[in-house]
Specification:
Blueprint lengths: L51 H5 L24
Length: 80
């Protein structure tokens, strides 16, 4: 089996790969695996959107929150 391995550093959200002629018009599997030790959370914005808390704080203030009846607890056999 022939394989093509290419290591590339990216600065955008896409890459382009030129393939050898022997791979053309064939079904190919493309796998993208990061090889650095950078955690995924460093690559994405995990912060709250700007103004999120100001827009949502107190939005249920006029709706009473009620905890419904929890029912009867199931009695289970003891694990020995």
């Amino acid at each position: 089996m022939q394989a093509l391995r290419r290591i590339q550093t990216t600065n955008t959200d896409s890459i382009s790969i030129k393939i050898p002629r022997v791979f053309q018009k064939r079904k190919l599997e493309v796998i993208v695996i990061p090889i650095d030790e950078k955690p995924l959370s460093d690559n994405i914005d995990v912060s709250w959107p700007k103004g999120f808390f100001e827009k949502t704080a107190g939005c249920f203030a006029s709706v009473p929150l009620v905890r419904e009846d929890q029912g009867v607890y199931e009695i289970r056999n003891e694990i020995l």
